Amino acid sequence: MIQNALRPSDITDELLAAYETVIGLEVHCQLLTESKLFARDCNVFGAEPNTNIGPLTLALPGTLPKINKKAVEYAIRLGLACGCTISKKTIFDRKNYFYPDLPKGYQISQDKKPICDKGSVTISSKNTDGQTVEKVIRFHHIHLEEDAGKSVHDGSYTETLLDYNRAGTPLVEMVSEPDLRSAEETGAFVTEIRRLVRYLQISDGNMEEGSLRCDVNVSVRKKGAPEYGTKVEIKNMNSIRNMMRAINFEERRQVALLEGDQDVQQETRMFEVESGQTYGMRVKETMNDYRYFPDPDLSPVVISDEWLASIKAAMPALPQELREKFVQQYGIPVYDAIVLTDTREIALYFEAVCALTNAYKSVSNWLMGPVKSYLNEHDSNIDLFQMNPTNLAALIALSESGVVSHSVASQKIFPILLNEPDRAPLDIATANNWLQNSNTNELESLVDEVISSMQDKVTAYKKGKKGLIGLFVGEVMKKSNNTADPKMVNQLLARKLS
């Protein structure tokens, strides 16, 4: 027994702060092509096992692969979005590695000539002082490869079952430089990648379905040390939250080993969700001998200047570009712009409403307020939102012009429109007598009634309790069934109470 052995739970925050965590990721992202990377088999999630397969997926003798042009285009889109250098001539290699769920016995991937070189993404995360900071995370490269199938370990069977539906699905693998320094930064990095591939419409990014998953390389070193520590790979993380939990555990585990005068072993580990701990799967050699060589059945892919230019011309606006546009063109705060570009669908909906009204900040407030609350309550997305941009713009116009109060618009008309999206907001307000009352004589009578019934509060107000003005306004609004113009009510009360 090692006398100095420490457990991860023994490592205090103060001791952990003496170390620096170094993290690099290999992010695997399935592409939304209709067919597989080298075969015509259907590429769709959720089909019955072993139904989306054919002779080439099963590696039957005499079959020859043929590259999916759309998959190459999607990889180029991602490379352009990340500022990568696009290889004008790229080749595919055979990676000789035993996959029990890949019938060929090797994987077609890219080694020496990946399709995208270098590049980066910018992330926003909180530092130790709680401030939001931006950081550039570099890529080493991005390459194309085929996915393996899926091994199914069902407790009701004594054997492992194999589903080859996923075998041959096109993947891009994004290999980062070791620029990440915390679980929080890593979570922000994967979140930004998921947002990016969804904006580019090259992947659905659904981690729970395996469309986006990560291998996380983690090491620790004393702060200020010039050399990296021994890295450990945590395989197949398909949840951002669990990935962050795994990193938090692993950095404490490695510090515990070093503080206990033990060595960190280079190995592949898995994460157990229930315990929140990583555990060893296999010891990893310093170098993997995959015996790469160019696939003899696939010709080099030549990307012409014309093809590259056409892909660039079709690129959609990306999150950072839209954030800058929203701040400059619509004059909304930076925070609003970040929230409204969280998904492509929300950004498009915001612009659709802004095309119908000049009240841009009000549109932002509505989307971040009532609309977002409704979507959260119903676990829904903006693309399933019943209210069309025209009706939301009309509702905002009623509120902004004072035809109805904001409370009536948000608490009464808005819920009706959600159930009856074809009705006009003005028709709903008129039918329910919710039009805001700006008739001075009628409002003055209501103000007089409230003042007469609350003489004790009037006395307190005149003695200096000016905050009571809100109470008076509220009472007048009740008597008017919330149809009184609040500004006019405030003016009348201020004049009469003084």
UniProtKB/TrEMBL annotation:
<dbReference type="InterPro" id="IPR006075">
    <property type="entry name" value="Asn/Gln-tRNA_Trfase_suB/E_cat"/>
</dbReference>
<dbReference type="InterPro" id="IPR004413">
    <property type="entry name" value="GatB"/>
</dbReference>
<comment type="similarity">
    <text>Belongs to the GatB/GatE family. GatB subfamily.</text>
</comment>
<dbReference type="InterPro" id="IPR017958">
    <property type="entry name" value="Gln-tRNA_amidoTrfase_suB_CS"/>
</dbReference>
<dbReference type="InterPro" id="IPR014746">
    <property type="entry name" value="Gln_synth/guanido_kin_cat_dom"/>
</dbReference>
<dbReference type="InterPro" id="IPR003789">
    <property type="entry name" value="Asn/Gln_tRNA_amidoTrase-B-like"/>
</dbReference>
<dbReference type="Pfam" id="PF02934">
    <property type="entry name" value="GatB_N"/>
</dbReference>
<feature type="domain" description="Asn/Gln amidotransferase">
    <location>
        <begin position="348"/>
        <end position="497"/>
    </location>
</feature>
<keyword id="KW-0648">Protein biosynthesis</keyword>
<dbReference type="GO" id="GO:0050566">
    <property type="term" value="F:asparaginyl-tRNA synthase (glutamine-hydrolyzing) activity"/>
</dbReference>
<keyword id="KW-0436">Ligase</keyword>
<dbReference type="GO" id="GO:0050567">
    <property type="term" value="F:glutaminyl-tRNA synthase (glutamine-hydrolyzing) activity"/>
</dbReference>
<keyword id="KW-0067">ATP-binding</keyword>
<keyword id="KW-0547">Nucleotide-binding</keyword>
<dbReference type="Pfam" id="PF02637">
    <property type="entry name" value="GatB_Yqey"/>
</dbReference>
<dbReference type="InterPro" id="IPR023168">
    <property type="entry name" value="GatB_Yqey_C_2"/>
</dbReference>
<dbReference type="InterPro" id="IPR018027">
    <property type="entry name" value="Asn/Gln_amidotransferase"/>
</dbReference>
<comment type="subunit">
    <text>Heterotrimer of A, B and C subunits.</text>
</comment>
<dbReference type="InterPro" id="IPR017959">
    <property type="entry name" value="Asn/Gln-tRNA_amidoTrfase_suB/E"/>
</dbReference>
<protein>
    <recommendedName>
        <fullName>Aspartyl/glutamyl-tRNA(Asn/Gln) amidotransferase subunit B</fullName>
        <ecNumber>6.3.5.-</ecNumber>
    </recommendedName>
</protein>
<comment type="function">
    <text>Allows the formation of correctly charged Asn-tRNA(Asn) or Gln-tRNA(Gln) through the transamidation of misacylated Asp-tRNA(Asn) or Glu-tRNA(Gln) in organisms which lack either or both of asparaginyl-tRNA or glutaminyl-tRNA synthetases. The reaction takes place in the presence of glutamine and ATP through an activated phospho-Asp-tRNA(Asn) or phospho-Glu-tRNA(Gln).</text>
</comment>
